[in-house]
Design brief:
By secondary structure, this protein is an alpha+beta fold. It is built from 28 helices and 26 strands.
Length: 737
Amino acid sequence: MNDLKTLVVPIAGMDCAECTQHVRRAIAALPGIVSVEVLLAAERATVQLDPAQVSLDAIVKAVTDAGYAASGAAATAADQIGGSPNQQPARPPLAGLSRQVGLLLGLLFAAVLFVVVFGEWLGLFERITARAPWPLGLAIVIAGGYPVFRKVARATLRGQIISHTLMTLGVVAALAVGEWATAAVVVFFMRVGDYVERFTAERARRAVRDLTALAPQTARIERAGREVTLPVGQARVGEVVIVRPGERIPVDGEVVSGQATVDQAAITGEAMPVEVGPGAHVYAASFARLGSLRVAATHIGADSTFGRVVRLVEEAEANRASVQLIADRFSTWYLPIVAGIAGLTFLLRRDPLATAAVLVVACSCSFALATPIAMLASIGAGARRGLLIKGGRHLETLARADILLIDKTGTVTLGKPRVTEVLDVRPLAATGAGTSAMKIAPQVPGTSEAPGTFGGSSDILYWAASAERYSEHPLAEAIRVAAHEQGVQPTEPEAFEALPGLGVRARVGGAAVAVGNRRLIETEVGPWKVGAEPPTAAANGEMRLYVVVNNELVGVIAAADALRPEAPAALAELRGLGIRRIELLTGDNETTAQLLAGQLGIPYRANLLPEDKIRIVQEYQTQGCVVVMVGDGVNDAPALAQADVGLAMAAAGSDVAIEAAHVALLRDDWRLAPELFRIARRTLRIVRINLAFTAAYNIVGLTLAALGILPPILAAAAQSLPDLGILGNSSRLLRHD
């Protein structure tokens, strides 16, 4: 076989899961097709093919013959986020139906329904049928139902039975007994049902389209010493992009120069803008409210964080929930069952009108719509709030979860250690009188709370910050931050040596300075002096760094990774939502784990390796538990993949986090976690209501029609009502945008 090729083909006119099945079968029947994935929300088909056996034109023709519109402008990769405008096929007539038009359609439907009910009760339609010539009635029926009849004919020629097949048979049956007025009303409600289904699908797609619409289409790029405005897809990694006030940032990148207030709600869902400057990372589709920036591009178009979010939201439909798969299978069997009931009705009652009513009242599309409309609405709306959900089956699993396992660093902690205490041990060494301790008050991120002061021992920070000036270790960064906050100005070291796993050595102002852990300091000053070290706050699980100047231990610095301030309340809320056990998993030592778990009020397991976390997840799964694992998506990737649902915190900008997890929180905010679980449970509840309502409605309708109580003309009106009910019920999810 030749090298395979993958094409993304835009398709319009699909209104329900049944439509996607028709398109999938039409494309799969072509020679050379390896795989086909058709997505209703994204309105596209992803086709893997052998280009030596099948062409794009053949695929377009197959889709067109199936009754849908396909674009010949397929792409192998999207250069722009969400695809380029010229790749979209012609939109169906009511694709952009507004709320006002939808309301008007509903009022018209209600008015016609009222006329039909009372017209049937008063015998109005029998009088019309008796007075008007039958050929005129036939012409009205054919003209009004031609689009539907054509679709049914094409499906029949391919050996397929669709939902309109049964209603078309009902129209034929009504015409056969001379009830052309009844046939005309059936056609009217068939067309109304088509528009209702299309409107329902468009409502579900709205959140995804609103998200895609945020993508900038052009970028102002520095090339050859001048500014040029080009489509985003023509930008290159490493080029500098200029962003002016009031513009959206077109690429992911690092700020080279400039200052700006940036609204990142499109990526993280965070309502508050952030201040960015040189060295800061910014995301495509973020909005520069104040200030201008020069940004060196790192990811462009579909490869940007925003592009990946849009792609994953569009493709989430492929990960369908088990309830949706059940509904799809039921729809496949439902039409033959209805045909059997209609045949049985005719054999037992010999009543062609009752038989026609059975065929007309059956509504299979409502089963197909019951699940995906709710799932797509929740996934799209969740993405706008910083919740990236990769499919309906993950929503369903979240709704049943009862075990929550949490990684420590970067998950319930900030992932950035802060200096909490500096101790001057020179008084102890000289006189044994004690120590001089300087506390640093914790500073909550996002607040202006000032840290504490050091008193007379700021020289400890001076030596440490100077020695650590060029170290990349997180603890070194914590020391430099503490020195800056306390107004300590470190100096340039004359020599610097990093000792992996130990610390650093440097020469500062002619003095030999060493900063590091116990093993390093024992080699510098001897174990007996370290053993005489005073008790410190580090005994409460904080990390210790020792500062040695000219082979003399002069100070101890304590540092800790601060707890996320919103985490305890969020975990308490999750318990209230039915999570029966929440457990902390960490590779840190027992003391540190115990301290943090005590603050959160949850049990813990310490000194864990990545494989230990996988084992714990499997341990709960073998007990029949539904496990959610929360991590940062990098070192926790194996455990995230093993869990029933892997939830990555702070995934914005992280390829590993977005790909490894089933659900990603695009900003560091534990308050999103309870919201995610509420969305999952609300969605599953609405899906179950949709399915129960549809099943009950169809059972009652089929029974009344088979007994002759529900005439064909009212059956036609009745078959459109389930779609309206599903739309109204699922719209409750959209209102949580």
